[in-house]
Amino acid sequence: MTGMRIEEHFPLENYNTFRLPVKTRWFIEYDNEEELLRILHDEYFMECAYMHIGGGSNLLFLNDYNGIILHSAIKGVGMVEETGAAVTLRIGAAEIWDEIVVLALSRGWYGIENLSGIPGECGAAAIQNIGAYGVEIKDVVEAVEAYDRNSCEKHIFSNKDCLYSYRHSRFKDESTGPYIVTHIRIRLSKTPSPALGYGNLEERVSACGIEITPSVVRETILTMRREKLPDPAQYGNAGSFFMNPVITMRHFEALKAAYPGIPSFPAGDNGVKVPAGWLIEQCGFKGKSQGEAGVYHKQALALINLGNASGQDIALLAEDIRSAVAGRFHITLMPEVKYIG
Ligand SMILES: Cc1cc2nc3c(=O)[nH]c(=O)nc-3n(C[C@H](O)[C@H](O)[C@H](O)COP(=O)(O)OP(=O)(O)OC[C@H]3O[C@@H](n4cnc5c(N)ncnc54)[C@H](O)[C@@H]3O)c2cc1C
Predict the structure, then answer these.
(1) What is the pLDDT of residue 1?
(2) Is residue 58 located within the same domain as residue 138?
(3) Residue 157 pLDDT
(4) No. of H helices and E strands in the chain?
(5) Which residue, 135, 144, 50, is CA-closest to 93?
(6) How much helix, strand and coil, in percent to the nearest 5, is found in the chain?
(7) Could you tell me which residues come within 8 angstroms of residue 337 by beta carbon, excluding any fewer than 6 positions away?
């Protein structure tokens, strides 16, 4: 296996936004689909435990990784189709998501401006169904190109076949097949139509006092994100640590009787979504720390590395939060972050 990057005992500090000083036994980075296929067919590779990562902004390493960490270096943005109204782009999995948002805005292609400032790579963005400020990537994904890890066959999944739901897709679920994503295709509109319905976004954008354009929406969202989310350069973190739980209407009504201020969002038939950050804050964790692991003082949903935390420290704090929330609200928080090890 030549031509690709292969490193042994490789430090992953720059590949996990918690900035945990873990190492992987092997790190392999491939540049194209042919190299990926060579890796997948390699006998040594087939015997080893392995995992594919992107930028590591949604991962929590509990230990050093005793196997192979695979990383794509497939780059490139191509035009699949252009009409008077829209464009369809084919993007390599290793492209940085936020750079695509910037590129799209500079070319007058709209639909992803609300997803500004989300760390990570494009492959993972489509796997995770990233979402923010009322928009999810599933709203623009046309197809995802992926290799089945076992059969090594290539599949092109339509949006419908990706089985998208809140922060979820078929690619996150081992039962619907272990896939390696090489490219994503997204369709963007040439007509701006800002989506401002989320929270106080419209108020914040209007307060800029200038014409509402997708670029103004981006800048406003970047400001709002900076106000509440920790910058991984300052404190290692992985964004929202837990998903917002969806509970039954009955359960919600019982909670509302006890906590009249409980915030909520509708979540389909008979379901109510409750902000996990609010639940954690109510349990007194906001701004608190346990050793080197902490809860961000501006947003209780973000767990942070105060400097020298281990993955275990962060996981222990997360466990304490989960038991406190379960004890008080009878709600089980599920991590959005993926634990490794
Ligand atoms: C400060 C901060 C803010 C954030 N804000 C948001 C937000 O607003 N909304 C949101 O949705 N998320 C948010 N996140 C989470 C994170 O940015 C997203 O989950 C992102 O899509 C992860 O991308 P990544 O490249 O870092 O993937 P990683 O964390 O490396 O991997 C994520 C998952 O994808 C898999 N994977 C990655 N690449 C491939 C591939 N090519 N083939 C197969 N599997 C692959 C991994 O195995 C893993 O399961 C935030 C994170 C941080 C640190």
Answers:
(1) 47
(2) no
(3) 98
(4) 9, 20
(5) 144
(6) 30, 30, 40
(7) 58, 59, 60, 238, 241
Ligand 1 centroid vs 84 CA: distance in angstroms? Answer: 33
Residues 100 and 203 in one domain: yes
Q: How many domains does the chain have?
A: 3
Kindly state if the Cβ of 236 falls inside 6 Å of ligand 1: no
Range of the domain at 161: 77-228
What's residue 326's pLDDT?
Answer: 98
9 with 87, same domain: the answer is no
Provide the Cα torsion 92, 98, 103, 107; round to 10°.
120
Same domain for 205 and 81? Answer: yes
Establish whether residue 295 lines the binding site of ligand 1, counting it when its CB lies within 6 angstroms of any ligand atom.
no
Q: Is the dihedral of CA 187, 192, 193, 199 positive or negative?
A: positive
Tell me which of 228, 262, 294 is where a domain ends. Answer: 228
Is the same domain home to 118 and 155? Answer: yes
Q: Are residues 145 and 93 in the same domain?
A: yes
Last-in-domain residue among 166, 193, 228: 228
Whether residue 55 is found in the same domain as residue 172: no
Closest approach atom of ligand 1 to CA 182: 41
CA of 69 to the centre of ligand 1 (A): 15
Sequence-distant (≥ 6) Cβ neighbours of residue 151 within 8 angstroms = none
Residue 127 alpha carbon, nearest atom of ligand 1: 34
Whether 240 is catalytic is yes
Report the predicted TM-score, pTM, of the whole model to 2 decimal places.
0.95
104 and 208 fall within a common domain: yes
Of 29, 23, 13, the C-alpha closest to 93 is: 29
Supply angle C-alpha 268, 271, 274, rounded to 5: 110
CA of 73 relative to ligand 1 center, distance in Å:
16
pLDDT per residue as tens digits for the range 175-196: 767 899 999 999 999 999 999 9
Instruction: Please report, for the domain that includes residue 242, its CATH number.
Output: 3.90.78.10
